[in-house]
Amino acid sequence: MQRDVRTGRPAGHGRKGVTFLAALGSCALVAASAAPAAAHGGGDGGGGSRYVALGDSYTSGPLIPRQVDANCARSDHNYPSIVADRLRTATFKDVSCAGATTEHMWKAQGTNGPQLDAVGRNTDIVTVQIGGNDIGFGSIIGTCAQLAAQDPTGDPCRRHYNASGVDQLTVATVKTAPKVARVLQAVHARAPHARILVVGYPDLLPDDGSGCAPSVPFATQDFPYLRDTGKRLNQMLRLVARWNHAEYVDTYGPTIGHDMCKSPAERWIEPLQPASPAAPAHPNAKGEVAMAGAVWQRLTHGRGGH
After folding, report:
1. Side-chain half-sphere exposure of 96, counting CA atoms within 13 A
2. At what angle do helices 168-190 and 222-243 cross, to 10 degrees?
């Protein structure tokens, strides 16, 4: 994963800001790992497991048939449902909900109660995919699409979020780290023997930094900036998982080459005007299958490494 938070900046711009963000990142990650978490035991990925899925819209699968919860835009063909079917679980609770932030682990969303309420002492497996809404994922896409009209071949989105001299999306990602850590610590406390899998976010934009406007309406030089923002979010999730005794599931790598810039037949992430049943800039049914495959691979290949 690329670690250069200056990607796309003019030469000589913001070295002081980079140092500040590196220090802030270290402090946030240390804080995120400060509270001890219980060691996990059971839940080896076999049949008869008690599985709970927590998460946001990337987990719930908005508009993907068949929708089984209108309040949360939840599909019965999202990746938790696919994993549960493969596992032949004894019990399965999917409380993922579109629009969820880390706050909604403790707070109800309409008819969906606090997501952590689904986790109990007998829970064997918990998947958690959260953090995208904490950094403002939806508003970022909307803002960058609007700004592209001002400078279609430039990087107006990057300049907008760097106007202060410090990249605000990197700051938002760093600030989200202790929030995700608190979620993991709460899961450990409620289910001390469960395997906890932190599920990363898939590849939304071309990994090579190329663009595809106007079908995805971002300015040409903002494509690599937004790609790197997604990679930083996943890197944060990976580190927080490691420091809080959880396992990280990489869904970015398995989805490279199937981003929203690809043709309808090839893509697993729909663009802002979807051609398949899915929310804009979200996984379609194929994307959910791909994420399920990544989770399944992790569950069935042991705990070694994070």
Report:
1. 33
2. 30
Confidence band of 302 (pLDDT split at 50, 70, 90): low
The catalytic residues are 57, 282
Can you tell me the distance from the alpha carbon of 260 to that of 283, in angstroms, rounded to the nearest whole number? 9
For residue range 260-277, what is the model confidence (pLDDT) as tens digits?
Answer: 999 999 999 999 999 999
Burial 102-136 (b: 16+ CB within 10 A, else e): bebbeeebeebeebbebbeeebbbbbbbbbbbbbb
Q: Is the preceding peptide bond at 36 cis, omega within 30 degrees of 0? A: no
Rg (CA), the chain: 19
CA neighbours closer than 13 Å in the CB half-sphere of residue 176: 27
**Closest residue by Cα to residue 183 from 260, 255, 115, 111:** 115
- At 204, the amino acid letter reads L
pTM over 0.90: no
